[in-house]
Amino acid sequence: MRINALHAIDHLVRLLGRLDIPTATQAALAQPTLAAAATRCRAVLALARSGLQGTASADWLAKLETQALELAELRRGQRLTILGQTAAGIHTPAEALAALDAVRWLERVTNHTWRACHHLAQGDAAPARESVEAPTPLEE
């Protein structure tokens, strides 16, 4: 149970580090080409919230995993799209880098959310340890 708590804390700390979004990343998130990824990230966050509050369906963790993995795949596809558009002159190299950072940011937020929820749920499902008697003090 403790190991799950440590894993959850690790992912939550990493997620916390992602909350300070660079200005260029914020601007890139508004691009129409990133709308699907941003929508998926918001859906993951909403599902995580309802799952942790106990209001989601029983398979919420499996859905969270599926959505996180789909966003990782979408990131790989978006990368190729963004690089191709940049090569065609649609984006400047600076815009492309900001967009790539934004997609990576969405994917990392989603992944850390999923993994934190996974470990928190595992901790809840772990059987409670039987109480262990305190050792008797040694006689001097």
Protein topology:
Elements: H1 2-17, H2 23-29, H3 35-53, H4 60-87, H5 93-125
Structure description:
Helix content is 74%, strand content 0%. The model is unreliable at 126-132 (pLDDT under 50). The chain starts with a helix and ends in a 15-residue tail after the last helix. The longest helix has 33 residues, at 93-125. The protein has one domain. The radius of gyration is 20 Å and the shape is elongated. The protein is an all-alpha fold and 140 residues long.
> Are there runs of 5+ residues with pLDDT below 50, and where?
126-132
Number of domains: 1
Number of helices: 5
Q: Given the C-alpha coordinates, what overall shape results?
A: elongated
Task: State the end-to-end CA separation.
Answer: 36 Å
Beta-strand content: under 5%
Helix percent reads: over 70%
The H/E string reads HHHHH
Mean pLDDT reading: 83
Radius of gyration (CA) equals 20 Å
Tell me the structural class: mainly alpha
Number of strands: 0
Query: What kind of sheet is the major sheet?
Result: none
